[in-house]
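Worked Example 4.2. Read the sequence first, then its structure tokens.
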Amino acid sequence: MTKTKLKLVIGITSHKNTTLIKGQLAYFKNIGYKTYLLAPDHPQVHEYCNHEGCIHLSAPLEREISPFSDFKAIIVIYKHFKKIKPDVINLGTMKVSLTGMIAAYFAKVPYRIYTSRGFSALTETGFKKIALLASLKVISVLSHKVICISKSIKDNGIKYKMFKDNNTYVINKGSSNGVDLNLFSNKNINIDSKNKLRDSLNIMQNEFVFGYVGRLIDRKGINELYEAFNLCYKKNNSIKLLVVGPVEEIQLKKDKNIITKLQSHPGVILTGRINHKDVPLHMSIMDTFVLPAWWEGFGNVLIQAAAMGVPTISTFALGTQDAVSDNFNGELVPISYVDELEKVMIKFMESEKLREAYGKNGIKWSRNFEPEIIWKGMDRIYKKQFV
């Protein structure tokens, strides 16, 4: 028999991670859980807890490796767990998962779940790579279940012997929290708004628009995107590349001049960071969405574009390969192959029929990622221990 009012703790490392769990704790509270958010003390965390109706468990978490701070966090989290006695914890992102799992083990939390959002360790080198892989192994050993947000993460976790097949799950088609299909819908976009946006960005009605949304960093393929677009532009200068998102220079090591190149290119438009609610409008003026990432945890932005009816191009990379249904709502290319990327971009540009088919299929594909589908899957996993 399932216990009533199960105590559920969700853990995140940074206040910025609240966007990864939007709506989730409110859902679990509404279906009968007593909900807690383990996170650093920050106004954005307070706002999230007030909105979702959960209790904040403050912890001094730092993203970078810091033995003293991490030990302090373990002690604080241990005290929280001993006091509230949670039935289930689900920790995602590396630092809260490591400190939280250690604390939960010693506090004898009965059901410990880790949500794996990717393998950043595989792209690191030296001590940091060793430390991250060791941390991941500790987290995995201390977890009763692992939820992977994509099939390729699960496959790689098992391949590298980080996870065991019999206790590792992917919910439906993947994603950590689903996609807000009410927000990402063309039904909310009118032609006047689209025309005003095009005018404000100096995009002519006859110009073809390739689009990108995300942080401007190496691993999301911003260098390859620029190079492929530049090749396309040399063949047809009636095209634009609309790049939406903030620059993170610390993660731009492949080409130190990439931002200057983007800024000076006559076909490239950089918007910088915009409000999340304005992303659908920007996507609505894109003819094709391109994300040539080296790896992602899943690639929610690809589902967002699909939900807007925008055909997508991405890579056969960890996470991205799960977010695009290849040859159904978009196409995948090998990682870092600029010539292949250019070829597919031109193919999309030249075939309106192909884009229309992929766009319609994208709306169908996106329905696999409604948040309730993911949350119901989590609920089933949470209750397995108590049935």
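Now turn to a second chain, presented in exactly the same format:
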Amino acid sequence: MLDVKDIKNDFPIFKSKEKNFIYLDSASTSQKPQSVIDSVSSYYDSYSANIHRALYEIGEKATDKYESVREKVRQFMNVPDSHNIIFSSGTTESINLIAYAWGTKNLSNDDHILITEMEHHSNLVPWQLLSSRSNTSLDYILLNNDGTLELESLEKKILSKTKIISVSHQSNVFGTINPINKIIDEAKKVGAITVIDGAQAVPHMKVDIENLGCDFYAFSGHKMLGPTGVGVLIGRKTILEKMDPFMGGGEMINTVTMEKSTWNDVPWKFEAGTPNIAQVIGLGAAIDYIEKIGIENIHQHEQGLLKYGLEILSQNENIVLYGNPEIRGAVIPFNVKNVHPHDLAKFLDTDGICIRAGHHCTQPIMNRLGINATARASFYIYNTKNDIEKLGDSIKKTADIFK
């Protein structure tokens, strides 16, 4: 079991707020430990300089710190080669990068893109745009009532002309952990490229890129104790080398004349301009913090909270729970009868409890459920069973008010 009291001491926000501050929205963004904040501040305080350019001491230090995070990601995710690792602003940019730099060049009007009905908008809208640009067909694997994918239709949905399959590793609504190994294996049978949205998975469980064998994997720093504005795209090097750059500018070039340009090696070909240096360094500190605690310990702690949360919320007859996947992360979507989710969130806030309310950037899921929005509680390393009990009490109090 994690020593949550000790962990919370590492997070300044829990010291600055009143004692009843309970944060249950880590699926949206996580809080940041002092070590991450210090790593970002240290860059600005002590060695603020551009990378890959300066020959003076602080510039070389900034470059070394930045590039060392690539190696941290490689080890953390078991990536075959650090050159497969591209820094982006987040999962959204990473997926758009693939859709533009790979999709535009490789898709024609006879081809087919396959996603799922449970995707976050960042893994849906880029493919809609690509489908429109390339005049390709876009289809999706359907969602079951329990929050799982209708995998019985998988073989029918994957066609000989399917060129790319993009799916979330873990749902940000239901917490469903999808059987991506099976999906990747089926994709390989027809030679389709696989893209995995790992934004909700990487902070909470061990992800092994070598084991998965996917072509692309994307995640964001801010959901795993790191800063906002930084993400990672892991790609198969042989594919990345054939792709055109996503953006043009400084650093992504090799030679430039007035007539033409040639490109830098992978991964720098996809990191145009001055990158988010401080944020990347902060991501490295976040990985250090997670590894100190242990990703397996984090996963076990969250699973205990998930089980307890479902038990507590299911005891309230006014609460409607959505989805019941057998294998899931610590995310619970729900509604309270006669209380709009937005009203619920505001009333809980008066008790110092932070939850998410809305469509969670998954409007197709809301349409599938026949609702406009849900409330959502999501748990992380700084949460306890006591937090869940207080959530249950506050929900009950709110429901009584709206009666």
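Notes for the reader: Residues 154 and 276 are 39 Å apart (CA to CA). The radius of gyration is 22 Å.
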